[in-house]
């Protein structure tokens, strides 16, 4: 009997050995099964052979306490296991960062949810990348029927790696139909931009005017350059080109939007005539005007029902100091309801050296203008800046909040009908409609966006707060790509603490001397009182 009991006592040992072997090898072979099932049989035999001793032992008070403790442990482990199971099956995440850094951006959600063509993201690597895997799980969850993700070891599947011209570990390829693009980095912004490239036809061109000392889209060295803005537009799968209207003599037919970014020299009458005709035919223009400069577009602006003030906006709230700038850099947090600005609610945009605008009336114009956004109440339009100092003068200056952005639209078909409506004959209207249908202009909407500053989108300030989103949203709206209007992926916040030498010394004395000294002093005081008592 003792021999049988000794043999049966090896049952739990065999069960443990079977588990360890399976966890190492990962193979459910006959050896694991023999050890597991044999261990279970021996364990049951051990319980049967020692049943009387176990029964007597459970009658003891200590055994009952132990059993209760074991039962509580089992219940806690079971509860934790159930919670873990439910958490894995019904995943829910909370992003508690101040700028929702670990949540997918509005742009990504709009793009992925709206996918119609199938898109596959392939990560060619043999090493795990948990951060990328977690990120792609969020992507796929948005639209699992259209977007898929898989990881491939290029050494195990060299044919697939050659097919997609993969030449390094860690490369990410996005495929849609016959199109494929490599992702520059495993960041949301790059992945989203690459998905955009393979799912959209690259047939829209954004033209920037030149020849009047406008911001240069090829200048990446200077702060005033627009190379960063050009790159941001190209990431939206547009082509970007520059054009000298005086030399070209016309605006190209493939122009989806014309950007005039901070002209320091007035445009020629022939150029303004080109812009006028382009807009009247349903064209799109983004005009960025800086203070103290004449763009030569006064008559056109009046026709578009947009007024431009001869001032510089001053913000006395001190918020500009948060970004290392003075009162001449007004901060905007108030936006009107419009596709360009709807996603910018509760965000900030900064405009270094801006001029104020306004929506005005014009009896002979069919354009409809409306304000987009304005500054804070503690700002005003300064019209008499003397020696760099500004003080609000109610009799001269423009009381805040002041408008910095205005949009103007015109339904080309209705405008043509209105122009012929004065004839009082339906035949005239029908004739004009047929003419506009023949030249392709009927049903188009002319769109003009004017902002009283060009610096907000230059190399220095494009990525400041939501400046880039405002600029790109305006371009997307003008190009009639409303599905691209969004708040784009966030950058990590710099949470480093900047301290002067005096601050560092103060911190040293407080943390290393004062606080430890106070604790030691209180301890000594308590010890001395107890000793006396």
Describe the structure.
With 533 residues, the protein is of the alpha/beta class. It has 17 helices and 19 strands. It has helices at residues 2-8, 11-25, 30-49, 51-58, 61-89, 106-113, 130-142, 158-163, 188-199, 227-235, 245-248, 269-280, 298-303, 412-421, 426-438, 467-478, 501-532; strands spanning 119-124, 147-152, 171-176, 179-183, 205-209, 239-243, 255-261, 284-288, 306-308, 312-315, 331-332, 334-335, 349-350, 357-359, 368-374, 379-382, 398-399, 403-411, 445-451. The strands form five sheets. The protein has an eight-stranded mixed sheet with strand order 6-5-7-8-19-18-15-12, with helices on both faces. Helix 7 (130-142) links the parallel strand 1 and strand 2 (147-152).
Task: Please describe the structure with a list of short key phrases separated by commas or semicolons.
single chain; alpha/beta; 4-stranded mixed beta sheet
- Estimate percent helicity: 40-55%
Strand content: 15-25%
How would you classify the helix and strand content by structural class? alpha/beta
Backbone shape: elongated
- The order of strands across the largest sheet is 6-5-7-8-19-18-15-12
If helices are DSSP runs of H or I spanning 4 or more residues, what is the number of helices? Answer: 17
Q: What is the CA-CA span between the terminal residues?
A: 69 Å
The residue-averaged pLDDT reads 82
């Amino acid at each position: 009997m003792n021999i049988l009991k000794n043999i049966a006592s090896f049952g739990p040992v065999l069960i443990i050995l079977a588990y360890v072997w399976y966890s190492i090898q990962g193979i459910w072979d006959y050896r694991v099964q023999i050890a597991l099932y044999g261990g279970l049989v021996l364990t049951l035999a051990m319980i049967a052979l020692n049943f009387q001793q176990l029964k007597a032992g459970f009658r003891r008070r200590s055994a009952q306490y132990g059993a209760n403790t074991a039962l509580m442990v089992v219940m806690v482990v079971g509860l934790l296991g159930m919670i873990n199971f439910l958490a894995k099956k019904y995943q829910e995440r909370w992003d508690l960062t101040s700028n929702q850094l670990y949540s997918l951006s509005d742009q990504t959600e709009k793009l992925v949810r709206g996918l119609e063509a199938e898109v596959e993201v392939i990560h060619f690597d043999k090493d795990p990348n948990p951060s990328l895997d977690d990120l792609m799980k969020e992507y796929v969850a948005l639209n699992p029927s259209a977007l898929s993700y898989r990881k491939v070891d290029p050494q195990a599947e060299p044919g697939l790696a050659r097919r997609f011209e993969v030449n390094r570990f860690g490369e990410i390829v996005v495929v849609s139909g016959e199109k494929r693009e490599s992702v520059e980095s495993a960041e949301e912004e790059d992945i989203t931009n690459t998905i955009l490239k393979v799912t959209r036809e690259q047939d829209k061109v954004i033209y920037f005017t030149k020849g009047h000392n406008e911001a240069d889209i090829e200048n990446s060295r200077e702060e005033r350059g627009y190379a960063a803005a050009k790159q941001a537009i190209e990431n939206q799968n547009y082509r970007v080109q520059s054009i000298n209207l005086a030399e070209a003599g016309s605006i190209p037919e493939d122009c989806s939007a014309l950007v005039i970014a901070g002209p320091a020299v007035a445009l020629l009458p022939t150029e303004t005539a080109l812009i006028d005709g382009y807009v009247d035919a349903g064209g799109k223009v983004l005009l960025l005007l800086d203070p103290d400069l004449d763009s030569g577009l006064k008559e056109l602006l009046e026709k578009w029902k947009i007024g431009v003030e001869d001032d510089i906006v001053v913000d006395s709230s001190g918020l500009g100091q948060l970004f290392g700038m003075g009162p001449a850099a007004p901060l905007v947090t108030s936006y009107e309801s419009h596709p360009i600005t709807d996603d910018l609610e509760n965000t900030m945009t900064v405009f270094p050296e801006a001029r104020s605008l306004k929506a005005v009336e014009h009896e002979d114009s069919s354009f409809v203008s409306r304000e987009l956004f304005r500054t804070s109440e503690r700002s005003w339009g300064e019209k008499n800046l003397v020696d760099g100092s500004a003080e609000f003068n109610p009799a001269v200056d423009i009381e805040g909040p002041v408008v910095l952005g205005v949009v103007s639209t015109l339904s080309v078909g209705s405008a043509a009908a209105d122009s012929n409506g004065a004839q009082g004959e339906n035949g005239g209207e029908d004739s004009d409609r047929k003419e506009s249908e023949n030249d392709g202009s009927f049903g188009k909407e002319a769109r003009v966006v004017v902002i009283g500053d060009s610096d907000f989108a230059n190399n220095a300030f494009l990525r400041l707060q939501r400046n880039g989103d405002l600029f790109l949203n305006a371009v997307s709206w003008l190009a009639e790509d409303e599905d691209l209007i969004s708040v784009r992926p966030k950058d990590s916040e710099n949470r480093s603490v900047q301290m002067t030498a005096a601050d560092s010394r103060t911190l040293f004395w407080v943390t290393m001397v004062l606080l430890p000294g106070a604790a030691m002093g209180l301890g000594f005081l308590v010890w001395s009182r107890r000793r006396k008592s």
